[in-house]
Amino acid sequence: MSKIVSIGTAVPRYAHRQDDIMRFMLDATNPDEKTKKLIPMLYKRSGIDTRHSVFSDFSLHRGNWHFFGNNCTAPSLEQRMKLFNEEVVALSESAVHDCLQNTRTEEITHLITVTCTGLSAPGLDILLMERLKLPAHTIRTSVNFMGCYAALHALKIADAFCRADASAKVLIVCTELCTLHFQKSNDIDSILSSTLFADGSAACLVVGDEKTKGLSIRQFFSKIALAGQPDMAWQLSANGFLMTLTNHVPKLIKEEIGGLLNSALEQLNLSIKDISNWAIHPGGKNILEAVETSLSLNSSDLAASYNVLRNYGNMSSATILFVLKQMMQEASVEGNIFAVAFGPGITIETVMLTL
């Protein structure tokens, strides 16, 4: 049985208060009176205090903006990808060093990189392999454009590698620079996205050695709620990536999560009473509340998810690893952990872990 033995995290140097980002939004988009009243309400209800970004604009007043210019001119896709390539490797490296405190990089046999906020070739996998001085024969895999659930998909790949080779040491690195794709728009989907997304990186080490202490990977289970395809989407455009995120998403998750949980538990001959801890991707406060209601949980059951949402926002694929890291560090956490993340499709990806 493969295990997650360590998780490391990193965020960019610019930490922005949610109130400052709201002020930036109001200045940048120049909304009509109706939207001007709506934006503060959405930010106040977001459950987020702080988010991080690779640029400083969100905490600055008009006239001091750098990346977006004084008139908040939409940067081109090329400009956004240029900054992605300038920032992504160093941030990823910081997360890796936090993760590999007790492991030498030359011991790594496989590297899986995950991102949906930037694409290039050579990509993050090769650039990071060079920066970390990994062996040239390191087996590389890239998971791109799968969104917020991609870390769990990467775990599934790592688990397969470790089951095939008990000596494998698989490094997963999820790095997302979501704020690069802010769009100057008063469209409700853009406004909703602007209240949530942030930048961050998380790395985890998965090994096949059963004697090593860590989170044992027991079972994966996933489902696609095809009815939600129009409600969560991520498209390329000349001016960056366009995020569609409607308020129907929490409703869909509320409808689907109970049946999915039962199907996952059946495979392990477990019941909901056998789950000690819940690691829910904090895609938004409404999503966490939808899971609580559907599964008859309390907010305290999702404390780690709410804490990550409050302090970091939604960092797409990296976020669920932030949640799991916090849980691994808490002495009170033990037993079965049900982890779930959501993404385009709408895809609901889960894994049962045991600590």
TrEMBL record:
InterPro entries documented for this protein: Chalcone/stilbene_synt_C, Chalcone/stilbene_synt_N, Polyketide_synthase_type-III, Thiolase-like
Pfam family name, one: Chal_sti_synt_C
Stretches that traverse the bilayer: none
Domain Chalcone/stilbene synthase N-terminal: from-to ranges: 3-208
Domain of life (superkingdom): Bacteria
Residue ranges constituting the Chalcone/stilbene synthase C-terminal domain according to the UniProt record: 230-353
Keyword Transferase: yes
UniProt xrefs under CDD domains: CHS_like
Keywords: Transferase
UniProt similarity note: Belongs to the thiolase-like superfamily. Chalcone/stilbene synthases family.
The name this protein goes by in its record: Type III polyketide synthase
